[in-house]
Design brief:
By secondary structure, the protein is α+β, with helices and mostly antiparallel strands. It is built from 4 helices and 5 strands, in the order βααβββαβα.
């Protein structure tokens, strides 16, 4: 009989770099940033800051020793107000886990963390260009409203 492996959701640690690199590369290759050079060093520097700063968080989903998703985000003051806003920098689920609860549980964990920080609102974006209609439906179902768009001009 096969043993079912539960998915673990937790804050990232320094031991997660290989998994974060793999997830980061997959996200990069699939999305609108794929024409840009990917840097393991830069990814490590970014997530190191997220491990060291109490106003930033990285959360990883692991099924056994296999990474299946991640979300990273921050809390900061608006540039025009002392109120706090939470935003994401990356939210990714590997293709074989899309349609499962992995993405939702990652978002739940990020929302819970952000709310514990006393934010006035959360702002979650999509700039990869991947499955934008599905993303829109999901976010609206969760109570988010669309308030803008991303545009790109390549140089």
């Amino acid at each position: 009989m096969l043993q079912k492996v539960e998915t673990e959701y937790r804050e990232i640690t320094g031991e997660d770099f290989d998994a974060l690199r793999d997830l980061g590369r997959m996200m990069h290759e699939e999305g609108s940033y794929s024409h840009l050079e990917f840097s393991d060093r830069r990814l490590f520097e970014t997530f190191k800051r997220y491990m060291d700063d109490p106003d930033r968080i990285g959360i990883i989903a692991m099924k056994g020793d296999k990474p299946c998703g991640m979300i990273g985000g921050y809390v900061s003051k608006y540039y025009f107000s002392d109120e706090l806003v939470a935003g994401d920098i990356a939210w990714f689920v590997v293709p074989e886990y899309r349609g499962s609860r992995v993405g939702l549980r990652l978002l739940d964990a990020f929302e819970d963390w952000a709310k514990s920080k006393g934010v006035s609102e959360l702002r979650i974006g999509i700039s990869t260009g991947v499955k934008m209609d599905a993303f829109d439906r999901l976010m609206k179902k969760r109570g988010y409203s669309m308030v803008g768009a991303n545009y790109r001009l390549e140089n």
